[in-house]
Amino acid sequence: MQKNVLQEFHDAIVDMMSQSGNKNILETTIVEGYNSDKERKLLQWGENNGVKTRLEIAYVKGAGRGAIATEDLKVGDTALEIPTSLIIVEELVQADMYHALEKFEGISSETMLLLWSMKERHNGDSQFKIYFDTLPEEFHTGLSFGIDAMMVLDGTLLLDEITAAKEHLHAQYDDLFPALCEDHPDIFPPELYTWEHFLWACELWYSNSMKIKFPDGKLRTCLIPIAGFLNHSLDPHVVHYGRVDSATNTLKFRLSRPCNAGQECCLSYGNFSSSHLITFYGFVPQGDNLYDVIPLDIDAAQDDFTEGSSISNWTTHMVRATWLSHNRNIFYYGLPSPFLDCLRRARSPMPHTKDLLPENLKNEIEILEDLRAICDDMMDNLGDADLDDRKNTNWDVKLAIKFKDIQRSIVSSVLTSCYCGLKLVKDELSKCLAEDTPGSKQI
Known about the structure:
Blueprint: H1 2-22, H2 37-48, E1 52-53, E2 55-60, E3 64-69, E4 78-83, H3 95-101, H4 109-120, H5 129-133, H6 147-152, H7 157-176, H8 179-183, H9 195-208, E5 210-213, E6 219-222, E7 244-245, E8 250-254, H10 274-280, E9 294-299, E10 314-319, H11 337-347, H12 358-382, H13 395-436
Antiparallel strand pairs: 1-4, 2-3, 4-8, 5-6, 7-8, 9-10
Organism: Prunus yedoensis var. nudiflora
Protein name: SET domain-containing protein
Domain SET: 53-270
């Protein structure tokens, strides 16, 4: 009886997951005529070496190369299974390279693998030659944005993120080169370790690597041939894939929602904002990203900070689009409560209640006016959407404009909430004042 109850419970949960997944199906449009010989060779190489797959590689409109289900897959089915022998891990770094890098204090295994891949990419006898042959000559991530795209991003959080990431990579490269090439030219040939090759390898590892836990308990950053074709989605089919199955010594990509034959099978890269996905992966996901935010700096009184905390005159809050909230009532307006409380404290240090009292409503009008002024300034800084160079065919400019459109839409939603909130509060305040006025009530 216990077994039957658990089976019924299991079936009910799977059915609910299937129904929920079917509501979020995105149309997959395959681009015909794309030459996928290299990808087919990689799949064949994988299958010859123990890979089990129910996917094929095709060019998907709006997403580039993607993994397409060859049959109907249910919740719990394994779409892809890869033996650990085909996973690129730190143990592949040759002994001579490892010893040459030991003198660099604090160098990570990820950096060692990055340097290994720069050389292995050109190794005709590499075990992973077929995999490297499928990789693009250029990765179109934010790290490769040109001057025009960076100018489009002026006044955005993404500009700061890309600039900081580039500065970090330049500093990392300067720490390693040309010292390594001069001390060990046989291990680090100068022609293979240019800045351009270094940036290519960084983009490869940022956009394609996965963190995997192995049976020994160690978490490793890896490149996984074939699995790299699984694109990111806000409604992924595969969610949990970060642990090697100790019984089979393979990495299994199991489905958490159904994927029909001919549909692109996607996984989740993580809970990332579009700014992060552009910087390190080079795309904006389809749909409403819950992690897309705008930073709002609010002047906060120092009394708000407890003893022992760092004192600052400013507090930054990350605010997402208000259309994602269901509470548009007075005191909420589709905005996060901690952010609104911060605005209230900035106006008055006195404790605030959510009672519909005239003094509270007057304070609400003031904070909504303050917020409206802040967002008006932000919209001015983002510029007019009609002035963006949308005819520019450069991939980076197009991506930068997409990001600015996302930022504008979030700020616009906050402004709309301010206007709607002001109307609500003013109407409620009029009612309160009318009730308090002598003779306003009928006898």
